[in-house]
Amino acid sequence: MHKIDSVTWKLGLLISSTLIYALIEMIVGAIFYSTTLIADGYHMLADAASLIVALIGYIFASRPWSKSTFGWARSEILGALINSLLLFILTGEIIVHAIKSTIAPVKIEEPKVVLGVGLGGLLFNLIGFCVLNDINPVNIVKRCFFNLKDVEQQPKLSKSTEMNLRGAALHLLGDLSVSILVVISTTANLLLDYRWTIYIDPVMAFIPAFFLSISAWKLLRESAMILLEAVPSHIQIESITKCITSMSKVRSVHEFHLWRLSGDVTIASLHCVFATPDDYIGSIRDIKHILCQKGVHSATIQPEFSSTPFNVNYDRPSKLDLYVKYCQAVSESCDGQTCCPGFDSQK
């Protein structure tokens, strides 16, 4: 029997079970007028959506695509961005529901039934969180009793996959807090006979909404910075430039671009000026070693040669210095391009 990928297997099982339990919570909440339980059901639907995004991103990330030389490498980053937006929508839903419940509180009918479903949701989310932790540790639950022996040993996950799973884990964590609120509010209705007990649920709902919004913002910022091709926060271009230009055969560095393709793949492109082609050949290995030490996964280094009778300031080359004598491939057509600095019309 062919064994399927463990990550796909676990995520698929978690998605289907989450959808089923979300339907149960919404039906029970509608029958017994528990708006908190209905909100928890919608919350679980958002959980399922985040898990679906994570699964799609994981499946497509490794597939080749002829129209993109990098394949689907950023599909998981896009999934992480969608997850963060869903978290913001979910946070807004919790806040709106809490405000409505505070203005017009409704007493829960049959709180024992609602309490049972709430406890079931609490247990379900704990198991789901353990499953995600089994796929990828999220620094909250280190080990878990959940062990699937009928699947292959799970593969090493990429950083972007970890981002998607982190977003899904945040969804489950938020739903876990809502399930706790369901248990607290229904327990208060069972044990206390005061009018103010009906306000416990909406007031406490603001607490998880606050923490969820912070987590969603961090996930949104990280995924958006990758899609915008911003320089990774842990890499300093100035430091790398200083290390490269400190080499005796490197005259200067310009047009240095550095970005993340996905969560764990950093790419760089730079122009290095040498006196002769021999200097380039003798330095290229050391330059790549410096980039690798700084966390750059792949780099494209364009050599430019400055063997010219002109007096050139290699630390701050002028536009004229960067002309024909500076780059062997340059022509008049480069004047309108943005890959290199512009050139003076003077020759």
UniProtKB/TrEMBL annotation:
<keyword id="KW-0812">Transmembrane</keyword>
<keyword id="KW-0813">Transport</keyword>
<keyword id="KW-1133">Transmembrane helix</keyword>
<keyword id="KW-0472">Membrane</keyword>
<dbReference type="Pfam" id="PF16916">
    <property type="entry name" value="ZT_dimer"/>
</dbReference>
<dbReference type="InterPro" id="IPR027469">
    <property type="entry name" value="Cation_efflux_TMD_sf"/>
</dbReference>
<dbReference type="InterPro" id="IPR027470">
    <property type="entry name" value="Cation_efflux_CTD"/>
</dbReference>
<feature type="domain" description="Cation efflux protein transmembrane">
    <location>
        <begin position="15"/>
        <end position="228"/>
    </location>
</feature>
<feature type="transmembrane region" description="Helical">
    <location>
        <begin position="45"/>
        <end position="65"/>
    </location>
</feature>
<keyword id="KW-0862">Zinc</keyword>
<feature type="transmembrane region" description="Helical">
    <location>
        <begin position="111"/>
        <end position="132"/>
    </location>
</feature>
<dbReference type="GO" id="GO:0010312">
    <property type="term" value="P:detoxification of zinc ion"/>
</dbReference>
<feature type="transmembrane region" description="Helical">
    <location>
        <begin position="12"/>
        <end position="33"/>
    </location>
</feature>
<dbReference type="InterPro" id="IPR002524">
    <property type="entry name" value="Cation_efflux"/>
</dbReference>
<protein>
    <recommendedName>
        <fullName>Cation efflux protein cytoplasmic domain-containing protein</fullName>
    </recommendedName>
</protein>
<comment type="similarity">
    <text>Belongs to the cation diffusion facilitator (CDF) transporter (TC 2.A.4) family. SLC30A subfamily.</text>
</comment>
<feature type="transmembrane region" description="Helical">
    <location>
        <begin position="77"/>
        <end position="99"/>
    </location>
</feature>
<feature type="transmembrane region" description="Helical">
    <location>
        <begin position="168"/>
        <end position="192"/>
    </location>
</feature>
<dbReference type="GO" id="GO:0005385">
    <property type="term" value="F:zinc ion transmembrane transporter activity"/>
</dbReference>
<feature type="domain" description="Cation efflux protein cytoplasmic">
    <location>
        <begin position="232"/>
        <end position="275"/>
    </location>
</feature>
<dbReference type="GO" id="GO:0016020">
    <property type="term" value="C:membrane"/>
</dbReference>
<dbReference type="Pfam" id="PF01545">
    <property type="entry name" value="Cation_efflux"/>
</dbReference>
<dbReference type="GO" id="GO:0006882">
    <property type="term" value="P:intracellular zinc ion homeostasis"/>
</dbReference>
<dbReference type="InterPro" id="IPR058533">
    <property type="entry name" value="Cation_efflux_TM"/>
</dbReference>
<feature type="transmembrane region" description="Helical">
    <location>
        <begin position="198"/>
        <end position="220"/>
    </location>
</feature>
